[in-house]
Every structure is written in structure tokens, then in C-alpha cells.
Amino acid sequence: MTIAPRAVMPPPASAEVSAARQGELDTVHHAGDALCHLIGMTSTWGATRWEAGSTGETPVPTYRIAVTGHVPDEATIDLLVQRLTRQGWCGAVLSHEPILRLDAHRTVFAMRLTAEASTIRLTVTSLPVALATAFRS
What we know:
six-stranded antiparallel beta sheet
């Protein structure tokens, strides 16, 4: 098992940490929007927020979007994989039935695309942020 490196943040009360945390969310949001464009998900929004990491001290910036659509056929799945590969993403289709699941990663980002019935979901995460114990109140 490989553990991803973590960024150490300054004290939570500082303006620097507020800007840095917002920057983390903005980075993940832009990556999510770019992935939506790359794979052809048409939507004008995506929710970006902090979600729980593996411990209470490591929140993860996360982008989520769900759109109405059908489960892609094999030709479309192959096209998605080719597009992701050309853009430097590495991953695999982990299941086709009953739920399509495609996981991939690139640099500091990980993505999961799932499709079932009439819903397609995309989740993009970045590195967890370690909140220094000494800085917590």
C-alpha cells in the first residue's frame, strides 16, 4: 500500500490557511470541470467541498457531479479510456455490470466514474491535507 504525501497547513485561524484551503478546492474544481469536458459530461455545475479523509486530521478536497444519462456502451467506454490516456490519466474499467466503474489517477488527482440506470457520477479527489495537531484548538 502506498500512502500519498500530505501538505502541512499553517494554523487554522490565519488568512494564509484560508487562501490555501480555498486554493485546494479551486484546483480540484478546475480538474473536475476539465474532466467533464474531456469525457463529454454536459453540466454547468459541480460541487466541490472538503470530505473526510482516512483520519480526522486529513480532509480531502473533493469534486462531485451527477448527471442524467445512460450507461455507455463498449465503444463509448473505449473512447473514454483513450481520451483519458491521451491526457495522462492511468487507470482501468473495474466493472461493467451492473454498474460501470472506471477509476484513474494522474499526478495528484484520482477520479472515479460510475454509471447505472440513468445516472452518471464523477468524483475527483486530490491529496489529503494534514492538519497539524499543534494547530488544532
